[in-house]
């Protein structure tokens, strides 16, 4: 990736990290008008950055979060002493004669900072496999797939626009957003030879369709009573589950009112 593309990904990641805090803080300081203003500004900035990545840098299907979190255990470098042992050609493993079990030899025991429970071969294989996955280029998108990804990127802006036109109690914003999400996934379903990150992203988007059960006005009219009843039954009749379901019942109304939790 080029340096400008890395900067775009970094800014996009920062926006996704602070969007909920910005919404709640602005609502507390400037009220509802300030809250919706910051929501529109953040969604507009995210859409511009994503469209630049899609159309200018050909970033393909964009994942969320934009920058994959670092697995420090797998990315941990070898200790200098371990590197010397590797370069000197010392045997790192010993194979049992009877059990054929592979164990680490005492001479190649790594330092405490880089010690792990797997065999050296397993660690090297996992690191090389992860490096290959991280370095895989994005799958080139045709015209249909580019339109589908553009629909997914601009869906939040169209939803906000429909909220401003028809109001928060109307079914039209909810239906418009659902149609756009389903259309985007349908157009992307024909794309083959996706890498692992892109397949995981499409699965995540498919699972997120369940959020429409928690989004107003569907939640207010249909889902709220049934979900709370189910959680209450689980808390009353299933031992130990109440430690999770009772706080969830108290938290769900507040969570449902935060725009970036529901629609972001």
TrEMBL record:
Compartments in which it is found: Peroxisome membrane
Biased composition annotated in UniProt, kind: Polar residues: 106-116
Protein's GO biological process: peroxisome organization
Any single GO CC term annotated in Swiss-Prot or TrEMBL for this entry: peroxisomal membrane
Region entry Disordered, spans: 74-140
Record's signal peptide: none
Domain of life: Eukaryota
Entry keywords, A to Z: Peroxisome, Peroxisome biogenesis
Feature: compositional bias, Basic and acidic residues: 122-133
Main location: membrane
Family: Belongs to the peroxin-16 family.
Protein name per UniProt: Peroxisomal membrane protein PEX16
